[in-house]
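User: Predict BTG1 protein's structure from this.
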Amino acid sequence: GRAGPGTDMRTEISTAAAFVTRLLRAAGGVGEEQLRCFRECLQEAMREHYKHHWFPLVPSKGSGYRCIRINHKMDPLIGKAAGMIGLSHERLFQLLPSELTLWVDPFEVSYRIGEDGSICVLYESPQPGGKAAKQLESRTSCKEEWRIGRSSPSKSYNMMTVSS
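Assistant:
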Protein backbone atom coordinates (compact mmCIF):
# COMPACT_ATOMS: atom_id res chain seq x y z
CA GLY A 1 0.00 0.00 0.00
CA ARG A 2 0.98 3.65 -0.28
CA ALA A 3 2.61 5.44 2.60
CA GLY A 4 0.60 8.27 4.10
CA PRO A 5 1.47 11.92 3.41
CA GLY A 6 4.58 13.17 5.15
CA THR A 7 6.15 9.76 5.52
CA ASP A 8 7.97 9.66 2.20
CA MET A 9 9.01 13.34 2.09
CA ARG A 10 8.22 13.57 -1.63
CA THR A 11 5.83 16.53 -1.34
CA GLU A 12 8.07 18.43 1.06
CA ILE A 13 11.15 17.98 -1.12
CA SER A 14 9.41 18.87 -4.36
CA THR A 15 7.90 21.96 -2.72
CA ALA A 16 11.32 23.11 -1.50
CA ALA A 17 13.07 22.38 -4.81
CA ALA A 18 10.34 24.15 -6.79
CA PHE A 19 10.69 27.18 -4.53
CA VAL A 20 14.46 27.52 -5.10
CA THR A 21 13.90 26.95 -8.82
CA ARG A 22 11.29 29.71 -8.81
CA LEU A 23 13.78 32.10 -7.20
CA LEU A 24 16.30 31.28 -9.94
CA ARG A 25 13.70 31.74 -12.67
CA ALA A 26 12.67 35.10 -11.23
CA ALA A 27 16.29 36.29 -11.30
CA GLY A 28 16.36 35.60 -15.03
CA GLY A 29 19.12 34.45 -17.33
CA VAL A 30 18.68 30.71 -16.70
CA GLY A 31 16.96 28.68 -19.41
CA GLU A 32 13.86 26.57 -18.76
CA GLU A 33 15.66 23.34 -19.65
CA GLN A 34 18.44 24.23 -17.18
CA LEU A 35 15.87 25.08 -14.52
CA ARG A 36 14.12 21.74 -14.99
CA CYS A 37 17.40 19.90 -14.66
CA PHE A 38 18.36 22.00 -11.62
CA ARG A 39 15.08 21.15 -9.88
CA GLU A 40 15.50 17.43 -10.51
CA CYS A 41 19.13 17.45 -9.36
CA LEU A 42 18.22 19.38 -6.22
CA GLN A 43 15.38 16.97 -5.38
CA GLU A 44 17.74 14.05 -5.85
CA ALA A 45 20.43 15.65 -3.66
CA MET A 46 17.88 16.40 -0.94
CA ARG A 47 16.43 12.90 -1.01
CA GLU A 48 19.90 11.47 -0.59
CA HIS A 49 20.81 13.93 2.20
CA TYR A 50 17.57 13.41 4.14
CA LYS A 51 17.33 9.66 3.73
CA HIS A 52 18.16 8.75 7.34
CA HIS A 53 17.11 12.09 8.79
CA TRP A 54 13.35 12.13 8.33
CA PHE A 55 11.18 11.53 11.39
CA PRO A 56 7.44 11.99 10.73
CA LEU A 57 6.70 11.09 14.35
CA VAL A 58 9.08 13.79 15.62
CA PRO A 59 8.97 16.39 12.82
CA SER A 60 11.38 18.83 14.47
CA LYS A 61 14.07 16.16 14.95
CA GLY A 62 16.93 16.75 12.53
CA SER A 63 15.47 20.08 11.42
CA GLY A 64 18.85 21.83 11.52
CA TYR A 65 20.43 19.03 9.50
CA ARG A 66 17.77 19.28 6.78
CA CYS A 67 17.77 23.05 6.71
CA ILE A 68 18.87 24.55 3.38
CA ARG A 69 20.87 27.68 4.03
CA ILE A 70 22.57 30.42 2.06
CA ASN A 71 24.40 32.72 4.41
CA HIS A 72 27.51 34.20 2.78
CA LYS A 73 28.27 30.62 1.87
CA MET A 74 26.35 28.52 -0.58
CA ASP A 75 24.29 25.59 0.62
CA PRO A 76 26.08 22.45 -0.62
CA LEU A 77 22.91 20.87 -2.01
CA ILE A 78 22.00 23.96 -4.04
CA GLY A 79 25.64 24.30 -5.09
CA LYS A 80 25.72 20.70 -6.27
CA ALA A 81 22.53 20.99 -8.33
CA ALA A 82 23.69 24.29 -9.83
CA GLY A 83 27.01 22.70 -10.77
CA MET A 84 25.10 20.18 -12.86
CA ILE A 85 23.80 22.97 -15.06
CA GLY A 86 27.09 24.87 -15.10
CA LEU A 87 26.24 27.64 -12.63
CA SER A 88 29.15 28.71 -10.44
CA HIS A 89 28.72 29.66 -6.79
CA GLU A 90 29.54 33.26 -7.75
CA ARG A 91 26.72 33.25 -10.26
CA LEU A 92 24.36 31.68 -7.72
CA PHE A 93 25.09 34.43 -5.22
CA GLN A 94 24.06 36.98 -7.85
CA LEU A 95 20.84 35.10 -8.63
CA LEU A 96 19.67 34.03 -5.18
CA PRO A 97 19.06 36.00 -1.96
CA SER A 98 22.28 36.31 0.05
CA GLU A 99 20.37 35.30 3.18
CA LEU A 100 18.00 32.43 2.68
CA THR A 101 16.92 29.76 5.13
CA LEU A 102 14.62 26.98 4.01
CA TRP A 103 13.29 24.50 6.57
CA VAL A 104 12.16 21.19 5.12
CA ASP A 105 10.41 19.23 7.84
CA PRO A 106 7.80 16.48 7.77
CA PHE A 107 4.40 18.14 7.15
CA GLU A 108 5.91 21.60 6.76
CA VAL A 109 8.20 23.56 4.47
CA SER A 110 8.92 27.18 5.35
CA TYR A 111 11.49 29.79 4.50
CA ARG A 112 12.93 33.09 5.57
CA ILE A 113 14.73 35.61 3.40
CA GLY A 114 17.06 37.95 5.28
CA GLU A 115 18.21 37.43 8.85
CA ASP A 116 15.25 39.36 10.24
CA GLY A 117 12.71 38.46 7.61
CA SER A 118 9.47 36.86 8.64
CA ILE A 119 9.04 33.13 8.26
CA CYS A 120 6.68 32.15 5.45
CA VAL A 121 5.14 28.73 5.17
CA LEU A 122 5.25 27.17 1.68
CA TYR A 123 3.60 23.88 2.52
CA GLU A 124 1.75 22.64 5.54
CA SER A 125 -0.21 19.46 6.05
CA PRO A 126 -1.94 18.27 9.20
CA GLN A 127 0.06 15.77 11.17
CA PRO A 128 -1.54 12.35 11.54
CA GLY A 129 -2.76 11.78 15.08
CA GLY A 130 -3.97 15.36 15.42
CA LYS A 131 -0.77 16.72 16.97
CA ALA A 132 -1.33 20.14 15.43
CA ALA A 133 -0.85 22.12 18.64
CA LYS A 134 2.32 20.25 19.48
CA GLN A 135 3.58 20.94 15.99
CA LEU A 136 3.27 24.69 16.34
CA GLU A 137 5.22 24.50 19.55
CA SER A 138 8.08 22.55 18.02
CA ARG A 139 8.07 24.87 15.04
CA THR A 140 9.07 27.85 17.13
CA SER A 141 11.71 26.00 19.08
CA CYS A 142 13.25 24.55 15.94
CA LYS A 143 13.48 27.97 14.34
CA GLU A 144 14.63 29.66 17.53
CA GLU A 145 17.83 27.60 17.39
CA TRP A 146 18.98 29.76 14.51
CA ARG A 147 18.34 32.95 16.43
CA ILE A 148 20.55 32.08 19.36
CA GLY A 149 23.87 33.82 19.13
CA ARG A 150 22.62 36.51 16.78
CA SER A 151 23.87 39.98 17.50
CA SER A 152 20.46 41.64 17.39
CA PRO A 153 18.21 40.53 20.25
CA SER A 154 14.96 38.98 19.12
CA LYS A 155 11.64 40.63 19.85
CA SER A 156 10.63 38.10 22.47
CA TYR A 157 13.84 38.90 24.31
CA ASN A 158 12.97 42.60 24.35
CA MET A 159 9.55 41.86 25.72
CA MET A 160 10.93 39.80 28.55
CA THR A 161 13.04 42.66 29.84
CA VAL A 162 9.93 44.74 30.46
CA SER A 163 9.24 43.41 33.92
CA SER A 164 7.39 45.66 36.34
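Residues 132-162 have pLDDT under 50 and may be disordered.
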